[in-house]
UniProtKB/TrEMBL annotation, chain A:
SMART domains named among the record's database cross-references: PX (SM00312)
PROSITE patterns, A to Z: PX
GO annotation terms (biological process): autophagy of mitochondrion; endocytic recycling; piecemeal microautophagy of the nucleus; protein transport; reticulophagy
Record-level Gene Ontology MF annotations: phosphatidylinositol binding
Name of the protein in its database record: Sorting nexin-30
Species this protein is from: Lepidothrix coronata
Gene name in the database record: SNX30
Alphabetic keyword roster: Protein transport, Transport
TrEMBL record, chain B:
SMART domains, sorted: PX (SM00312)
UniProt KW keywords: Protein transport, Transport
Record protein name field: Sorting nexin-4 isoform X1
BP terms from Gene Ontology: positive regulation of autophagosome assembly; protein transport
UniProt-recorded Gene Ontology molecular function terms: phosphatidylinositol-3-phosphate binding
UniProt keyword Acetylation present: no
Bias (Low complexity) ranges: 1-11
GO terms for cellular component: early endosome membrane; plasma membrane; SNARE complex
Acidic residues: compositionally biased ranges: 14-29
Native source species: Lepidothrix coronata (blue-crowned manakin)
Similarity remark: Belongs to the sorting nexin family.
Gene name of this polypeptide: SNX4
PX domain location: 54-181
Region Disordered, residue ranges: 1-37
Length: 438, 444
């Protein structure tokens, strides 16, 4: 069941309810866990956050050992809500970067460098660096869905670019995709079960992934793959309340995100139309300046100022398009895949209930419930537990992701206005200048 | 021999001009001399300093117009009060009267005709122009009426602070005399003095030697009109688009509110951030309202360009008139000479008929010569006075133009500064709102 690496015994990361201590109160604010604006929910090697002002002890009071550079605690970046921090310190770091274009006879495509740093026993080496392309990520995701059907698998950025005339090899597109792929891997890394998945390991380490793919078989892990979930024919009478609530939540959530996506797109569109007019507006002041003598400099100044505002606006729109919209869309995809997992869960429960009923109808005098039905019951309970735990985790991550996303949006707007402010403030002295006596 | 030098006061009557074909010009009655232009008054003695003038209210009225048709119009209340020199807190009483836009127009027409050498301040626009979608193009719209009220007050203050115009009696009566003002204006007969458009157009095309400065000024005012029109048009579109950007953000308010309903921890942060988005969306109305004042300042100078143009046209007309008079005089002198010496220099119908039908008698010739000599003398006197008028006009017009240029540079600089200040204020508001929103997001 567990792929644990640490020598200290720890509870199974995925089964059973979390201890009360670990579960954040639904109404709790995060003020005690105030994070800086550069927060990413996943560890990021490149941006270690200073915790000099934090108490270097784990929530259960155990002091953290920072003496040895190789100790897992020295890799500790920050305290994080959803981490099983009291039993497991961060020991796996994954980054996606360095996109490169490959031109072959058959096709042209982009690969990304996937760097892994780890102390886990499942990995032979402490460091890995491999190159992967999108279809490799896609393969990984499919494998994860297959092998961990009770868990919520993070979404990938969209495969095909539908909208507009986007160049798949443009810098902006590649960078947007890289960020999404990085996020994808980090979410898996964070997950106490998924991060130990065999396919994930191979993805991070194998020199020749294609060979592995062709094998079609992975080393069996005790959890996951051997369990086949039948999806067929069983209809659930009623979803238990808590899962129904999750379903409803996801429905409304997707709806609201869709609305926000549309609003954001509309804003960008309006901004670009505004930009078009501004681009005509500025030069007219310049033309006027050409007519005048004393007013020539002030008018030129205004023209240049408007030009600067145009540049700032362009940057704002670009940022929103590249950073804001993709994350929204990712979450919409996430919600969709989560709803599917809910359906699968329903299937499993339905199967169990059907089999249970069948046994009851047989009216046999058996003191013991047949093992077949017992297994079904296990499956239901496992699924429910995994799902609940993942939902909890997902909610927290979602909150942090959106917090960061929306703060980022606010930041970009602030920066836009600050750039414009600087431009206009700088020409005030120019406008107030007394003309030199001619 | 054509007069070559670009003498501001036009061609010298003595120099021979190349005889063109007889121009078939219609000459109207001799121009009446303009009203004795008062010597310009010092700034401290301007009416504006002695009297407080405001256009304080606007009111919708209905009444019967000249054609006895019921109409709705707006009347504006003009309030005036003499500014007492520092006496013990004594305040002169406020006098007031109502005027409508057409009366302002009448006043301005009177001033334009009576002081053709002055760049007469323009009135605010008659109909709303350069509107962006939010502004109504309706004359009865309260925002339009309000801005017009301000524009009319500005007009009166401009006239009252003009060193020449402020002394005009008709202007004074406009401010102080409610009844009978229209009749008073019409009695001045100023309409008769007005130059016909056709005449002016003709002169513009045919004048040979206008003062170069006026020609340049004419081009400048044409280009100024063109560039400010363009600027106002684009600005209106910019305002329209900016309005759109701000208003769409209001939708965030609603959706954040709806979203917050299904969230536990995130709810409060989302909800309050949504409120800030609403504030942001609402803020654009005031911002654009303020910008209208900037647009009005630009519009004033757009219309001022027309006033400049009018002064240039007047110069061209006078110059053309002068050139025609000089030409006429020259031809008369020539005729006289021909009759006296009996030589025919150029082809003329008279010459032909006399060849065909016999020469005139000496008596007839004498009579003709005498008439011509009288005409020549008259002509020379007229030419002299026209020349003088022309020079005076140029001198006083150019003085006012210089005054105008300084005023324009000062005003437009102020307008640009106030525009920059508006932009700064808008940026600061934007920073404030988004900082507040960011604060709310951080609490999610």
């Amino acid at each position: 069941m567990s792929g644990g690496a640490a020598s200290a015994p720890k509870p199974l990361p995925s089964s059973g309810p979390k201890s009360l201590r670990e579960m954040p109160h639904p109404l709790a604010t995060s003020s005690s866990e105030e994070m800086g604006p550069a927060l990413t929910p996943s560890p990021d090697l490149l941006l270690p956050r200073s915790i000099a002002d934090k108490d270097l002890s784990l929530p259960n009071g155990t002091p953290v050992d920072t003496s040895s550079p190789a100790s897992s605690s020295s890799l500790l970046n920050r305290l994080q809500l959803d981490d099983d921090l009291d039993v497991e310190t961060r020991d796996l770091f994954v980054t996606v970067d360095d996109p490169k274009k490959h031109v072959c006879t058959m096709e042209t495509y982009i690969t990304y460098r996937v760097t892994t740093k780890t102390t886990r026993a499942e990995f032979d080496l402490p460091e890995y660096s491999v190159r992967r392309r999108y279809q490799d990520f896609d393969w990984l995701r499919n494998k994860l869905e297959e092998s961990q059907p009770t868990h919520l698998i993070p979404p990938l950025p969209e495969k095909f670019v539908v909208k507009g005339v986007v160049d798949r090899f443009s810098e902006e597109f590649v960078e947007t995709r890289r960020k999404a792929l990085d996020k994808f891997l980090k979410r898996i890394t964070d997950h106490p079960v998924l991060s130990f998945n065999e396919h994930f390991n191979v993805f991070l380490t194998a020199k020749d992934l294609n060979a592995y793919k062709k094998q079609g078989m992975a080393l069996l892990s005790k959890m996951g793959e051997s369990v086949k979930y039948v999806t067929g024919g069983y209809k659930l009478r009623s979803r238990p309340l808590e899962f129904a609530a999750i379903g409803d939540y996801l429905d409304t959530f997707s709806l609201k995100l869709g609305t926000i996506d549309r609003i954001a797109q509309r804003i960008i569109k309006e901004q670009l139309e505004y930009l078009v007019e501004l681009r005509e507006y500025g030069p007219v002041y310049s033309t006027w300046g050409g007519l005048e003598v004393e007013l020539s400099e002030p008018l030129e100044g205004v023209s240049a100022c408007i030009g600067n505002c145009c540049t700032a606006l362009e940057e704002l729109s670009e940022d929103m398009t590249e950073d804001f919209l993709p994350v929204l869309r990712e979450y919409i995809l996430y919600a969709e895949s989560m709803k599917n997992v809910l359906k699968k869960r329903d299937q499993v429960q339905a199967e169990y209930e059907a089999k249970l009923e069948a046994v009851a109808l047989k009216k046999e005098d058996r003191p013991k419930v047949p093992t077949d039905v017992e297994k079904c019951q296990d499956r239901v309970e496992c699924f429910n537990a995994d799902l609940k735990a993942d939902m909890e985790r997902w909610q927290n991550n979602k909150r942090q992701d959106f917090r960061q996303l929306l703060m980022g949006m606010a930041d970009k707007n602030i920066q836009y206005y600050e750039k414009c402010l600087t431009a206009w403030e700088s020409i005030i002295p120019l406008l107030q200048d007394k003309p030199e006596t001619k | 021999m054509e007069s070559a030098e670009p003498e501001p006061s036009g061609s010298r009557p003595e120099e021979e001009e190349e005889e063109d074909e007889e121009e078939d010009e219609e000459e109207d009655g001799a121009l009446l001399p303009p009203e004795q232009p008062a010597a310009a008054v010092r700034m401290e003695d301007c009416l504006a300093k002695k009297m407080e003038i405001t256009v304080s209210e606007a009111e919708k009225r209905t009444g019967r117009n000249a054609m006895n048709i019921q109409e709705t119009y707006t009347a504006y209340l003009i309030e005036t009060r003499a500014v007492e020199s520092q006496s013990e807190g004594q305040c002169a009483p406020v006098e007031s009267l109502w005027r409508r836009y057409s009366e302002f127009e009448l006043l301005r027409n009177y001033l334009s005709v009576t002081y053709p050498h002055i760049v007469v301040p323009p009135l605010p626009e008659k109909r709303a122009d350069f509107v962006w979608h939010k502004l109504s193009a309706d004359n009865m719209d309260p925002d339009f009426v309000e801005r017009r009220r301000i524009g009319l007050e500005n007009f009166l203050l401009r006239v009252a602070s003009h060193p020449v115009l402020c002394q005009d009696k008709i202007f004074y009566s406009f401010l102080t005399q409610e009844g009978g003002w229209k009749e008073m204006v019409n009695e001045t007969g100023f309409q008769l003095k007005a130059d016909s458009r056709l005449k002016a157009l003709n002169a513009t095309f045919r004048v040979k030697n206008p003062d170069k400065r006026f020609t340049e000024l004419k081009h400048y005012s044409d280009e100024l009109q063109s560039v400010i029109s363009h600027l106002l048009r684009v600005r209106a579109r910019v305002a329209d688009r900016l309005y759109g950007v701000y208003k769409v953000h209001g939708n965030y308010g609603r959706v954040f509110s709806e979203w917050s309903a299904i969230e536990k921890e995130m709810g409060d942060g989302l909800q309050s951030a949504g409120h800030h988005m609403d504030v942001y969306a609402a803020s654009i109305d005031d911002i654009l309202e303020e910008e209208e004042h900037y647009a009005d300042q630009l519009k004033e100078y757009l219309f001022y360009a027309e006033a400049l143009r009018a002064v240039c046209r007047k110069h061209e007309l006078m110059q053309y008139d002068l050139e025609m008079a000089a030409q006429d005089l020259t031809s008369k002198k020539q005729q006289c000479e021909e009759l006296a010496t009996g030589t025919v220099r150029t082809f003329s119908l008279k010459g032909m008929t006399s060849k065909l039908f016999g020469q005139e008698t000496p008596e007839q010739r004498e009579a003709k010569i005498k008439v011509l000599e009288e005409q020549i003398q008259e002509g020379e006197e007229q030419l002299k006075s026209k020349n003088l008028e022309g020079r005076d006009f140029v001198k006083s017009a150019w003085a006012d133009i210089e005054r105008f240029k300084e005023q324009k540079n000062h005003d437009l600089k102020e307008a640009l500064i106030s525009y920059a200040v508006m932009q700064i204020s808008m940026c600061k508001k934007g920073i404030q709102v988004w900082t507040n929103a960011k604060e709310c997001f951080s609490k999610m």
